[in-house]
Write a structure and sequence with these properties.
It is built from 7 helices and 2 strands; from the N terminus they run αααααααββ. The chain is mostly helical.
């Protein structure tokens, strides 16, 4: 699942950055969300896989603090970017004629920067305090299952939910892979031997 998450989100980033038709606010936010999802899962899953492989659940205090900081940073960024994406869709639906004026590149960059700054300032101290105060509790199977659901499954599904149902992303991915499209259908070119 981790590899699917990383690969799917990397494909979205590649599609958005390589196709000039996708250089719009919606896809800019989507590429940022994909990057944050890769970072989010990469803060916990590699260590979890290592723990499973070695049957060793030891983590130093410093590594724990570092992991929690980045986990909370990227979780907060996910929330703020989804909020910005919702605002983008609101503007596109409710004010379609003013969309490009309102959602200009300067504002898009400012919204992403504000998301990063808000997360760092808002979640860093409060989340760290909550985490450290609950360090004595034991985790159960249900909390481990819930942890896997929000750290692995949700970021894995984001590329499918936000992109693969989208014709523009599908078209860009087909161009990247080298599959020509003709009238909405996939046409495979067969190479014949002489």
């Amino acid at each position: 699942m981790y590899l699917i998450t990383v690969f799917g989100n990397l494909l979205i980033i590649l599609a958005v950055s390589s196709d000039s038709h996708l250089h719009t606010p919606m896809y800019f936010f989507l590429a940022n969300l994909s990057f944050v999802d890769i970072c989010f899962t990469s803060t916990t899953v590699p260590k979890m896989l290592w723990n499973i492989q070695t049957q060793n659940k030891h983590i130093t205090y410093e590594n724990c603090i570092t992991q929690m900081y980045f986990f909370l940073l990227f979780a907060g960024l996910d929330i703020f970017l989804l909020t910005v994406m919702a605002y983008d869709r609101f503007v596109a639906i409710c004010h379609p004629l003013h969309y490009m004026v309102i959602m200009n590149p300067w504002l898009c960059g400012l919204l992403v920067l504000a998301s990063w700054l808000s997360v760092v300032s808002l979640f860093y101290c409060t989340s760290l305090g909550v985490y450290l105060s609950s360090a004595a509790t034991q985790s159960s199977l249900s909390s481990a299952t819930a942890s896997v659901m929000y750290t692995v499954v949700t970021p894995m599904l984001n590329p499918f939910i936000y992109s693969l149902r989208n014709r523009d992303i599908k078209r860009a991915l087909k161009r990247i892979v080298g599959v020509p499209a003709m009238h909405g259908r996939i046409v495979l070119r067969l190479k014949t031997c002489p």
